[in-house]
Amino acid sequence: MSFDLKNLELFVRVAALGAIGRAGEEFNISPTNATQRLQSLEIDLGVKLLNRTTRSVSLTPDGEIFVEHAKRIIDVTEEARQVLSDTKTSASGLLRVTASATFGREHIVPFVPEFLDMYPNVTLDLNLTDMVVDIVEQGYEIAFRVGELAPSSLLAQKIDKNPEWLVASPEYLARAGEPRSPSDLANHACLPLGTLRTWQLTGPDGKLHQFPVTGPVMVNHGEAMSAFVLAGMGIGRAALWHAGPDLQAGRLVHVLPDYHVSRETNIWAVRPPGRIMPARVKAFLDFFQQRIIETNRMRYGALL
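RESULT FIELD:
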C-alpha cells in the first residue's frame, strides 16, 4: 500500500487544527480539494479517519491510531531526505516562524534577504506579534522566546544569553541620587515590568537581596519600559537588546553594577515536540543563531 505524503501531512494538520479549511489554507488548496485528498487517503486505508460535521472535524478511533503512525512516516521520510542530501540543497518548502515584533525587527528582519539568498528553495512565513502563539495549533515550526520558559512539551534551543540590568537615566540619578546598595532602592521610583513585583539581586559576596517594587507606572512591554526609564521616570529592569544601545550611548546608566539580577534570561528558539528537525528548520536555526551571536558581540561586547 502506498500513500501520497502530502495527503498524510494534510491529515496530520487537520487532526491538530480540527478544521479542514484552515489546514487547506496552509497547503494553498481549497476546502473542496482538501476534503477530496482526505477522502482519497481514507479509501487507500479502507477506514474512516475523520468525523465531519458542518462545524467541526474530529478523529475517529481509527484516526486516533493512524495519526501517530502518519507522524512517524513523515518524520522518517524527512530523516531520509536529510541523509541523502546536504542541508543547503535539501532545505526547501514553507518555513513558518514567529517572534515578538521588537525582537523580529532587531534580530530577524535584517538577515532574511541573506538567508533566502543562501537557501533559495525555502519560502519564509514570518509572523511578528507580541502575543504568545500556540505554535503546535497554529502550525509554526519555530518561535523565538526571550526570558524564562514556562514548562511545556516544546523543544527548546538556547540561542544566546540576554542579560538584564537595573538602569536609569543620568537625569533621574542627578535628581534622585544614585543608589549605592540594594537597600537604597526603597527611596527610589522602581518601575515594575509585567507581573514581576519583586526584584532579586545577588551581591559580589553571593548574598541574595530581595525587595518589593513599586513605582509611578508599571508596564508589560520591555520597549515601553526602556522609554519610561529614558524619560527619567525611575529605575527599571531592562535586557540587553532593549537597553544595550542606550547604555553604550550614555543615555542610560547601569545602576548597582556590582549586583546582578538574580534571573537568567536567554533568547530561545522553541519548536513542536516529537518531530525530526526538517532541513529548512536546521538551516534557519544555525544561520540565525550565528547572526544573533555575532551581532550581539559586535555591538555589545563590552557589556557582556
